[in-house]
Specification:
The chain contains 8 helices and 7 strands, in the order βαβαβαβαβαβαααβ. The chain is an alpha/beta fold. It has a 7-stranded parallel β-sheet with strand order 3-2-1-4-5-6-7, with helices on both faces. Strand 5, helix 5 and strand 6 form a beta-alpha-beta unit. The longest helix is centred in the middle third of the chain and has 29 residues, at about 105-135. It starts with 16 loop residues before the first strand and ends in an 8-residue tail after the last strand.
């Protein structure tokens, strides 16, 4: 059995392969960078051709492999995992929100397909490789898994679903040595939340509500996800860890 404290080293993921969905921007890109800095062979996927191209251009040393993929496309997902020979960690960070538009059925279903069905689609496709490596999955849920936001009904429903799916898959695959957890981010400064943090009044209200009195940064999630992916968390599965600066606990 590994000694968990030995995992906290500069090359703690050396020899490991990590896949991050939604890994071409925002939170997902920071997560991919975090694993890469710790020695992992890292693949970051995203649906936008333009974002993938921009990431490849900035990735001068080729440290991270970027690839275009739509998590709602089953054929693309199957082809991706058929091309891999090893996987130790899957991070499901792909997500979309369409404020106010989600009351339209087509938009509602699209958000659900990316945010919830996409997690299931990737997790099941990755499972043969994860079973072989006794790997782990970390899903990105949201504080809106627990709280309400009337402008994004599909986002709330899908992220609530992610927490339930995390528990179910943890019990499905735990007996075979695969751990599955989730994180629930609060208000982090990303492109998705730009309308809020660029509004001085709204940004200050949110800052004041958190216990730490600041907005989250994309990199704030990386440590939590790395911990849950490491053997330091070898007896943790089926949980959703809030990473929200104490926002929800203060409600």
């Amino acid at each position: 059995m590994s000694k968990p404290f030995l995992d906290f080293s500069p090359q703690m993921f050396a020899g490991k392969t990590v896949l991050v969905s939604g890994g071409t921007s925002g939170i997902g890109l920071e997560i991919a960078r975090g694993f890469n800095k710790l020695g992992a062979t890292t693949l970051a996927i995203g649906s936008s051709r333009e974002k993938v191209a921009a990431c490849r251009e900035r990735n001068e040393d080729g440290a991270i492999r970027f690839q275009q993929l739509d998590v709602s496309n089953s054929e693309q997902v199957a082809n991706l995992f058929a091309s891999l020979t090893r996987l130790d960690v899957l991070v499901n960070a792909a997500g979309v929100a369409r404020p106010e538009e989600e009351y339209r059925e087509d938009v509602f279903l699209r958000v659900m397909d990316v945010n919830l069905n996409g997690v299931m689609r990737l997790s099941e496709a990755a499972m043969p490789l994860l079973l072989a490596s006794k790997g782990s999955v970390v899903n990105v849920a949201s504080m809106l898994s627990y709280l309400a936001d009337a402008s994004v009904p599909a986002y709330c429903a899908s992220k609530s679903g992610v927490t339930g799916l995390t528990r179910a898959l943890a019990h499905r695959y735990g007996p075979q040595g695969v751990r599955i957890n989730a994180v629930a981010p609060g208000y982090h400064q990303t492109e998705m939340t730009r309308p809020l943090w660029s509004d001085k009044k709204a940004a200050e209200h949110i800052r004041h509500r958190t216990a730490l009195k600041r907005w989250g940064r994309a990199e704030d999630l990386t440590g939590a996800i790395i911990f849950l992916s490491s053997s330091a968390a070898q007896y943790i599965t089926g949980v959703t860890l809030p990473v929200d600066g104490g926002y929800v606990s203060g409600m």
